[in-house]
Amino acid sequence: MADINSNIPEGELTQKWTKYRSSVALVNPANKRSIEVIVVGSGLAGASAAATLAEMGYKVKCFCFQDSPRRAHSIAAQGGINAAKNYQNDGDSTYRLFYDTIKGGDYRAREANVYRLAEVSANIIDQCVAQGVPLAREYGGLLDNRSFGGTQVQRTFYAAGQTGQQLLLGAYSALERQIGMGKVEMYTRHEMLEVVKIDGKARGIIARNLITGELERHFGHAVLLASGGYGNVFYLSTNAMGSNVTAAWKAHRQGAFFANPCFTQIHPTCIPVSGDHQSKLTLMSESLRNDGRIWVPKKKDDNRKPTDIPEDERDYYLERRYPAFGNLVPRDVASRAAKERCDAGYGVGASKLAVYLDFAANTERYGRIEATKHGIQNADKATYMRLGREVVKEKYGNLFDMYAQITGEDPYETPMRIYPAVHYTMGGLWVDYNLMTTVPGLYALGEANFSDHGANRLGASALMQGLADGYFVIPYTIGAYLSKEISTKAIPTDHPAFVEAENSVKETLERFLTIKGSRSVDHFHKALGKIMWDKCGMARNEQGLTEAIAEIRALREEFWRDVRVPGSMDEYNPELEKAGRVADFLELGELMCIDALNRKESCGGHFREEYQTEEGEALRDDENFAYAAAWEYLEGVHFNLHKEELKFENIKVAQRSYK
Amino acid sequence: MSSFGKAFSSSIGKKVVMGITGLFLILFLIVHCFLNSLIFLNDGGETFNLGAEFMAGNWAIRAGEIVLFIGLILHIVQSARLTYDNQKARPVKYAAYNGSANSKWYSRSMGLLGTLLLIFLVVHLSNFWVVSRFTGIPTHDANNRENLYAVMVESFQNIWIVVLYVLSMISLCYHLLHGFASAFQTMGWNHKKYAPVIKSVGVWYSIIISVLFAAMPIAIYTGLIN
Amino acid sequence: MNLTLKVWRQKNSKSAGKLVDYQVSDISPDMSFLEMFDVLNEQLINKGEEPIVFDHDCREGICGMCSMFINGRPHGPKQGITTCQLHMRSFKDGDTIVVEPWRAAAFPVIKDLATDRSSFDRIIAAGGFISVNTGNAQDANALPIPKSQADAAFEAAACIACGACVATCKNASAMLFVSAKISQLALLPQGQPERYRRVQSMVAQMDAEGFGNCTNTRACEAECPKGISLENIARMNRDYYAAKFVSEEEV
């Protein structure tokens, strides 16, 4: 069945990576100097890969659309990064991290990749600390850990609510060091708009200088895409405004298969939508679920203030349904449970599309601990709350401030209102064990690939994967390809393939500008987002998906007929950039629905209403769907399915239970 | 450029010159203010003239005077250079700039306050320093000391001089209010435990010095001291 | 709410700019300031005019990209937030709001409200790092770091490089930004080997970029959305003196 080769090394799972690493072909230092590598994206995966490859001696060019590599959206990750360090002596191990990740991903990830990820996780923490990343510490001076959804050990390292920022700044400083040494050429405010293929191999890119509008040709012996996820296909998501699928989609159109596009993660704890003007959604870190209890009123349409609703009239539905994990169930489970309550009419707030995240109980508990510490006995509740508030502030101060800023409500006094929102995309470009796509010489790293999270990503695993790919995986695996390219001289960019690629990019851009229609790019983006959220969101069914595919096709047709893009090509023109990105989303959206329709089972973030247990839990079909769906792009926006069978030899496949 | 040349021509190097000379001038003001305050003994200038004679006759003080002038000139020249650099750092100005929302007006007006003080210094030096050093003090007191006190009393009979002095001391006060703590900050002496102390000492210092100096012309003009 | 906006329009870095008046109506108090700009841009596009270019990305106050000088203050009238976190409930119906780009020689305007802040990157490239190649690290817990020190380093590291400090400083000085990075690494044991090289090379690059000098007005500290403290500048100064007048290492 498999017509794609995942190139998983032979041997014992625990030995695969060690053996592979020791036997993979190397490129000698003298040859590295004449090999050029292009890295698109400067987030955790891109910056760490660019820096590490440059340290090794390759000539690296790195591209980002933001004004500085430090602004990549990895910066917004709040909660933490997992690593199997077992510093807490709670029984963590490489195998347990591997197991949790496979189970969390609902058995739709590739064993060998995940095990490798768990293996290198510990090195990441070492590397980051050496770079001066200020991870949280205890008074003894050693690193602190917290627990995160979907696990029962404390293996998450963090830096207050700004872990992504600190890790990215670590990778960014390593990257800037190489830039300063002249070993990386950095191209900021540049957007990759095409992959250039020569003799079937990726040999460069066409990038647009966003300030001058100039199209540039860049050669590389290999091209690495670390361009992030595609959550913005939903218009409203926790992604940055600029996050897009364009780089990955251009690669897809050039022959790189796109795997499991329907696997999107809906994060349970986001600030609810406040109106039509909303441009993005803000996440409240999952770490809040450590100390917050989620509930809705037991009565429908209960309009009392949350603080006025007595304890016995509250439904702590996660604790009720999943006593073992309680509020710490994985994201997909928590999100669906919130949707279930709201759909059943128990939602809160003006929109009725929200549930409460309440810190009162734990604030009081912390207050009592503090009181004991300070020898205060028999204090009143207000004192405990006051003492506890200080502890909560220390732990989550910036998140509480953020919430207050956006909603105008004080979360220390009243419970937060939260609702699920699109957050992360597990799907992405299909890659083999080497992180190479189906186009030779074209790699995908971090969220841009599909490899490690299966159908659902566990909290604090995205940072781990991005940095694992960039620091510790690609530097080795790229040798397998580049060692065969040492005799390839740099190809001049006046090669016909570059000329042709540039012309096609130019034509597309000109087309946007000549339509001169009546509706803005955002109009189409919002319309697409609505279709996706309604019909390919938290719950999907055959009818909705079929409708969605037709609607998206119609919308795409309308877009190409009626979009209005002001300005010109040869200037700084954000509307033109957006048009290109939305055009790609309009194709991706259709593929997501096709994939969701094809996958007649429920697993992780993909929930098909037709396939659920009697209790409303996801019902997997391992018989027929234990594969990664890798889609091939065909001319005229058609897609052809290839299957990579997933074999579980080291883990017993079971129904995922968090009860 | 030499290592020190590079250090002093850097932004922080220029600041440190401002800081050191500023602190030196702050110390000088203490001595100056203490000696002048001797007039408040209201003894017909006897003690004051004694102090003046001591200052004039002491070679160490004389040498210090040269250092003082060098310090003063450095402070002025360096501030001019910094102001020039700072103007250049923002060639297009804001149409709306709400500085008072985040900083004290006098901290943003050190150049202006300093310029006022420079004008004052010209008048001040020609009134007293030039007289005592070069043109000679016309009279002697009962102890046959040069009667600088008399020069002072005479000068402060002119209301405009008094007004100039008082206004200048207000400028001085604000200049010091910022300058005192600022010099410590520039020198890198910012410490969670000591910064509040430095700040309040700075405030008291600025007020006491300026009030004392301003009280002198007022007291003489109004005849409280005679 | 109905508002009058005076927005800086400038075609590109070579042309001169000017303030242009716009009216916006039916603005919800729950909108963010940038969402209000989205509404205005939608209007402009529908009228066939060129929308206003402004930098923004994450819209949750962490990427550091948004950068509007609103009514004379960076990131607007509230403290401790970025422009994207400013909500319209901070304004009144009928207000006139002046919106300008960051203004500094080292931040040239690219277009309208967007400026080029790559000078910050070059300062980091000059020395804002610890030279440790991937794979060189020892075990993360091999080096205990006192919590207070780690916390102080973290506070300095919270800087998002938005440039509000430069924008608001009457001298367009970048010392808060530079000193925050220097402090973060100077406070950690890992940063010690390069401590005195780092401060020299970063300050030299800062000067070369054409930023102004610090006169300790404290405006930067007051406006910093991440609360970076002026203590960092004092620490940078101390390290700089030690580097230039005590250390024998020349950079």
From TrEMBL, chain A:
Report the SUPFAM superfamilies cross-referenced here.
FAD/NAD(P)-binding domain, Succinate dehydrogenase/fumarate reductase flavoprotein C-terminal domain, Succinate dehydrogenase/fumarate reductase flavoprotein, catalytic domain
Please list the residue ranges annotated as the Fumarate reductase/succinate dehydrogenase flavoprotein-like C-terminal domain. 525-658
Keyword Membrane present in the record's keywords: the answer is yes
The EC number(s) given in the record are: 1.3.5.1
Q: What class of enzyme is it?
A: oxidoreductase
Q: Name one GO molecular function term.
A: flavin adenine dinucleotide binding
Keyword Hydrolase attributed = no
In Gene Ontology terms, what is a biological process of this protein? anaerobic respiration
InterPro entries the record matches: FAD-dep_OxRdtase_2_FAD-bd (IPR003953), FAD/NAD-bd_sf (IPR036188), Fum_R/Succ_DH_flav-like_C_sf (IPR037099), Fum_Rdtase/Succ_DH_flav-like_C (IPR015939), SdhA/FrdA/AprA (IPR030664), Succ_DH/Fum_Rdt_flav_su (IPR011280), Succ_DH/fumarate_Rdtase_cat_sf (IPR027477)
The record's family statement is: Belongs to the FAD-dependent oxidoreductase 2 family. FRD/SDH subfamily.
Supply the NCBIfam families for this chain. Answer: PRK07573.1, sdhA_Bsu
This protein is called what?
A: succinate dehydrogenase
TrEMBL record, chain B:
Q: Which GO terms describe its cellular component?
A: membrane
Question: Keyword Transmembrane: yes or no?
Answer: yes
Q: What is this protein called?
A: Succinate dehydrogenase
Name the keywords, alphabetized. Answer: Membrane, Transmembrane, Transmembrane helix
The answer to whether the entry has keyword Metal-binding is no
Indicate the transmembrane segments per the record. 16-39, 59-77, 110-130, 159-181, 202-224
**SUPFAM superfamilies this protein is in?**
Fumarate reductase respiratory complex transmembrane subunits
